[in-house]
Design a protein that fits this description.
Largest sheet: 6 strands, antiparallel
Order of helices and strands: HHEEEEEEEEEEEEEE
Number of helices: 2
Strand content: over 45%
Number of strands: 14
Distance between the termini: 47 Å
């Protein structure tokens, strides 16, 4: 057919002219926009504009939380037997995006957080025991969708077992990064399990600007008696990158 013949001709032209850059990637694959014009004056001005832009430093913005403003909020009290918080080491880009718990008799004996790195968009599980995370080791687990951060929690323990686990969460708001609105104002929740035993929660209201960085738990007589949440404000951090451009340029030449 005509379509097939046209495709074959196009494929042959790539082979004949050694233009495999169209279907491969090598050190010549990225070309400046100036190659799109045949006008040498325009081409040179474009190269000058590119170099002018890239020769300056570029400021990159990202999110982190600061351990200098961590708050602990005691829900009911009584003393916590098991506590797990994210490492507090200055500005930190790791945040909680999931949680798993296990109770044994009169204590929460296993705590795990799914942790996302806001710089690298990677996730990993952090456990209170130091063991590798295994789903079967936990009675309740909640994982958030990408783009959300845990900002609060609710918990129900009865008969020595975790009956209900809730995470309150908010979206990261990169659109308004220059307006100090780093978390979307709406708070949502996601729950695993059910039950009617003692229930405690820390539910931040809409407009909350702090994230959950850890928790401690108090269980007595196989029932939940309270917990402590640790929170910190999300902040914007900036870094400056010096940029260079690799391009040979000539002075503009007036066309006659």
């Amino acid at each position: 057919s005509t379509l097939s013949a046209g495709f074959d001709a196009w494929a042959d032209s790539i082979e004949e002219q050694n233009k495999h850059v169209l279907c491969d990637f090598d050190d010549t694959s990225l070309q400046p926009v100036s190659i799109l014009t045949t006008n040498e004056v325009t081409k040179t001005y474009l190269l000058i504009a590119i170099q002018s832009y890239l020769s300056n430093s570029v400021t990159l913005k990202g999110f982190a939380w600061d351990d200098g403003d961590v708050k602990d909020i005691d829900i009911s009290g009584g003393g916590d037997e098991e506590t797990l918080t994210l490492a507090q080491d200055g500005l930190t880009t790791k945040v909680i995006v999931g949680m798993a718990l296990h109770s044994s008799n009169s204590q929460i004996n296993r705590v795990a957080y799914k942790v996302a790195d806001l710089d690298e968009t990677t996730t990993e599980w952090l456990t209170s025991t130091g063991d590798d995370f295994n789903t079967s080791d936990y009675e309740a687990m909640v994982e958030l969708d990408s783009g959300y951060i845990a900002t609060g929690m609710g918990l129900r323990v009865g008969d020595g077992k975790v009956k209900n686990l809730t995470l309150y969460y908010q979206a990261v708001d990169a659109v308004n990064i220059d307006n100090n609105n780093y978390l979307a104002s709406t708070v949502k929740s996601k729950t695993s399990g059910s039950g009617d035993n003692y229930y405690y929660e820390y539910a931040p209201g809409n407009g909350n600007d702090r994230i959950l960085i850890g928790a401690g738990f108090h269980v007595k007589d196989k029932e939940l008696r309270g917990f402590t949440v640790y929170t910190a404000p999300l902040k914007v951090v900036t870094s400056t990158v010096e940029t260079t451009v690799v391009a040979s340029m000539e002075e503009p030449v007036e066309e006659g």
